[in-house]
Design brief:
Low-confidence stretches: none
Helix content: 40-55%
Number of strands: 7
Shape: globular
Distance between the termini: 40 Å
Number of domains: 1
Strand order of the largest sheet: 3-2-1-4-6-5-7
Strand content: 15-25%
Order of helices and strands: EHEHEHEHEEHEHHH
CATH superfamily: Spore Coat Polysaccharide Biosynthesis Protein SpsA, Chain A
Mean pLDDT: 89
CATH topology: Spore Coat Polysaccharide Biosynthesis Protein SpsA, Chain A
């Protein structure tokens, strides 16, 4: 069954930390942005593990990303494609080759919990729905569960949620929509940072501290 965690491989793409969260550069220094990204990645990987999805591929990143990934018991993989969507497409194919469904999860979800991951798998049901989690702000997609063998192509970017719905209709594939709290809020722009600091006071400092946990560097 698709909804069994053992039948799912989670895929979390990451940029090198120096390249990430560039839209926060007017507010945060390069070091602060790197710590923020790494702290969010840690929360995401731990939430996926807590949902009993034990095969987690963190794709791309840099040395700090790789060290944290390995320390958390996930698998670090080199960049697979020429851009994010090409990388995810290839990662989905690798998951299918192993007889698993593919679960994309964005790496910048600071409020992600195991329950959010469980809800993705429950929404897929045994009949094999593609499950989409929309971003609350820009019409993007923060998570996609693609059952084994469904030829769904990732089209991430602004407005991607409607693109994924349109593609699923074209493929005549059933779709479930998951609007759970932790999957809706990705941190990408200054307004997000200000809003999230109200939602979780001290968030930036807490994520910075979490970015340094487990690391051997």
């Amino acid at each position: 069954m698709v909804s069994e965690p053992a039948n799912v491989i989670a895929i979390v793409p990451m940029k090198p930390l120096a390249q990430g969260k560039s839209r926060l550069s007017q507010t945060l220094s390069a070091d602060q942005r790197a710590d923020l990204a790494l702290g969010m990645l840690r929360r995401v990987v731990l939430a996926i593990k807590a949902a009993s999805v034990y095969t987690i591929w963190v794709v791309g990143g840099d040395d700090r990303v790789r060290v944290m990934t390995c320390d958390l018991g996930a698998e670090s993989m080199d960049e697979l494609g020429k851009d994010l969507n090409d990388t995810l497409k290839k990662a989905f194919e690798l998951a299918f080759e192993q007889g698993k469904s593919a679960l994309y999860v964005a790496g910048d979800l600071p409020f992600l919990k195991a329950a959010d991951i469980h809800s993705m798998m429950q929404a897929s049901r045994s009949q094999g729905n593609v499950t989409l989690a929309p971003a609350r702000r820009d019409g993007g997609t923060n998570s996609i569960l693609v059952p084994l063998g469904v030829p769904m192509q990732p089209e991430l970017g602004q407005g991607s949620f409607m693109k994924h719905l349109t593609q699923a209709a074209r493929l005549e594939t059933s779709v479930a929509i998951n609007s759970s709290y932790g999957l809706g809020f990705d941190l990408d722009v200054v307004d997000d940072l200000e809003t999230f600091q109200h939602m979780e006071p001290g968030l930036l400092e807490r994520l910075s501290n979490e970015s340094k946990k487990d690391l051997q560097l």
